[in-house]
Amino acid sequence: MAEKMKLSLNVNGQARTLDVWPMARLLDVIREDLHLTGTKEGCGEGECGACSVILDGKLVNSCLIPAVQAEGGELCTIEGVASEEQLHLVQESFLHCGGAQCGICTPGMVMAAVDLLHRCPQPDEAQIRDGLAGNLCRCTGYVKIVDSVADAAERALQVAKESRS
């Protein structure tokens, strides 16, 4: 039987060292070992995006990543998106525009939106839909989700203008 391995990584800005099974999925380590249950398991096959996290600056499906592959990496989960005092603009916009329904897809959608806005601060509708393409929602027709991302981009633009003034 395999022995557990040491895994060291930065999780939401904090250095963490864990003992993990060699073939443990990153998703299971996030939820079970780190107790960060905001990241959801939807399909377990990398098709739905509910488990999306940002690993070393890239949006990934944590259900497909062996945890040991994250060794020495930077991991951001939904819990690390907001500051202690304030929600992230994307989270605020999801609330404001009604982009969240049952909540299963919401963390993955938020992570995909944060990633998209980091890469493309002022996306058009096609770019938003493309940026969210790996995330499935069974409750909505995506209109309010797309509106939420567009709203977050607009809010970010306003914040940038105000900070320059």
Offer a quick outline of the entry.
The protein is an alpha+beta fold. It has helices spanning 26-33, 89-97, 106-119, 125-131, 143-164; strands spanning 5-11, 14-20, 52-55, 58-61, 74-76.
List keywords for this structure.
alpha+beta; 165 residues; 15% strand; five-stranded mixed β-sheet; Ubiquitin-like (UB roll); 5 strands; DNA polymerase, domain 1; single chain
What do these coordinates show?
The structure is a single chain. The chain has 165 residues and is α+β, with helices and mostly antiparallel strands. It is built from 5 helices and 5 strands, in the order E-E-H-E-E-E-H-H-H-H. It has a 5-stranded mixed β-sheet, sandwiched between helices. Helix 2 packs across helix 5. The mean pLDDT is 95.
